[in-house]
Give the backbone structure.
Amino acid sequence: MIRNIITITFLLLGVQLTSLQAQDVWSLEKCINYALANNIKIKQGVISTQYQQNQLRQSKLSRLPNLSGQLSQNENYGRSLTYLNTYENVNSSETDAGLGTVLPVFQGFQISNSISKLKLDLQASIEDLAKAKSDISVNIASTYLSILFAKDLVKVSENQLRVTHLQIAQTNEKVEAGSLARGSLLDIEAQAAGEELDLVNAKNQLQIAKLSLSQLLELPIKDSFDVEVPVLPEISAQASIATSNEVYKAALENRPEIRGADFRYQSSKYQLKIAQSALYPNVSLYANLYDNYNNMYTDLTGKKIDFSSQLSNNQRKGFGVQMNIPIFSRFQNKIQIDNARLQVLNMGLDLESAKKLLRSDIETAQTNAIAALNRFISNQKAVSSIKEAFRYSEEKFSVGLVNAVEYNTAKTKLAKSESDLLQAKYEFIFRTKILDFYRGLPLKL
């Protein structure tokens, strides 16, 4: 009975350990979603967007009247104005209170233009956040594929080393039997030493790739951290690659850097209108309420006037209309308008620059994708031929028709061709995914 309990306990612990390990196996989608939720730059982008929202809200509220109050306590000594509007040499304490409000009526369209500008600034900030998410997604996808590439390189190196160890065993038997010279065994062992170094380098490359992904995710590196190996699409000579013009047209509509630059360009036009509004007169309505109390105020009979009576009698109200007309501002308004016009031109150039950079990136990605496909097809044929040639070399080496140096040369050539094939494969996958991403498709493997 106790043995059964112990067995069940170990099984449960094994299930828990397996579950914990599984939690460290990350898919590309999980990596991207985690980064978008936890990356510091993304969080800063969210804060920047919230700041722009507050700026817009503040601009909208500027249409409302304000309300301010004032309260002062004065201690007067010597000649002072009395309640009867005469001066007497008397010490007194006076309390003043008031309320005032101003309602903007016409500000040269400054408020409405500011609201329109800040709406565009908010949209630009949202696009900046989308661009930051796009960049981190692409970087994660690139590093993720680097890990998959490094994993395949490790497998290639392990396979090469395993074959070499088999050849060492066979060669050693022949040397012991006297059918081969010991030099052949030494050549094969030297080849194995080189392949062991290649395997170590491949594992180091895999570990560095994992470290890079952990850093992008802003996670501490752990030995249990690993990525999910998806079923990658098969690559054929008939693989279709979207044209750069087709991708560019779609990217102009959905890429955040283009939309953000366009929003800033439109915003700069409203900034020009805001600068021009300084040339218009502005009109405001105002109203105020004032009251005060003096502890030495007396009536005609010399009796001190109480607090409530003074508040009732001293109250003063007023309202009116105020217009400010700009006449001469030492050319400050003209300079601000000229600077705003220059900013419009500059934002227009930024928009054109963003479009040209986007076209350049798309053309580069498409060219690299085509080149990677061509390399993959050529390497695929080369690997097939080199594998066949290596098989013949292996057979000849087994019967002593080729020496160890020739055998190792054929083996090294095969390893290099397999590595080149893998590199072309992952390069093509990455570039085509980037082209799809520019077209607005999600990053998926």
Observations:
- The beta strands are 25-26, 66-76, 79-81, 87-89, 92-106, 226-227, 282-294, 316-324.
